[in-house]
Write a structure and sequence with these properties.
The chain is mainly beta. The protein is about 5% helix and about 25% strand.
């Protein structure tokens, strides 16, 4: 296992950051799983993915997972992933994104700046969510969400 930030070898175990990166103020909980292979049926077992690119100010809480990219790096800006959030391969989360617990972000999803996501939301792969949008608790997002909109429900639809 290597450090998710600097690539330094950590040896066996489940640590995600080395002591040096932790000292630099990286706010990643020790139970987070960063950079595991992409969960995709066409991914050859044992092949490495593209290492995630994570902003030094990102806050990733306990039991979160961020997959390696399949076609390019999974990218997280200065985001807050609350407990038990999964971010799929090749997803891009811009600065200011906040995601509540138990949310699943599918592969190739794009969340624009300052998007706020309620608890237990599911994003279908290849969905784009515009800047400043809000997604209500328990929503299942199956299509693109325009900037500034509020969407709720299963399937998610525009509230206002």
């Amino acid at each position: 296992m290597t450090c998710a930030f600097c690539g330094r070898d950590l040896g066996p175990g489940w640590e995600v950051t080395c002591d040096q990166c932790t000292k630099w103020g990286r706010d990643v909980h020790s139970s987070a799983v960063i950079g595991q292979p992409p969960q995709h049926r066409d991914w050859p077992i044992g092949e490495p993915g593209f290492k995630p690119e994570i902003h030094p100010g990102a806050r990733i809480e306990a039991f979160c997972s961020v997959d390696s990219g399949r076609l390019g790096a999974t990218r997280l800006g200065k985001v807050w992933l609350m407990k038990s959030v999964h971010v799929g391969h090749d997803a891009v989360l811009e600065d200011g994104v906040e995601i509540a617990p138990m949310t699943s972000v599918g592969g190739h999803v794009y969340l624009g700046r300052n998007v706020k996501v309620g608890q237990g939301v599911t994003f279908k792969p290849f969905v784009n969510v515009g800047d400043g949008a809000r997604i209500g608790m328990g929503a299942v997002v199956i299509c693109d969400v325009p900037a500034g909109d509020i969407w709720v429900g299963n399937p998610a639809r525009k509230l206002r």
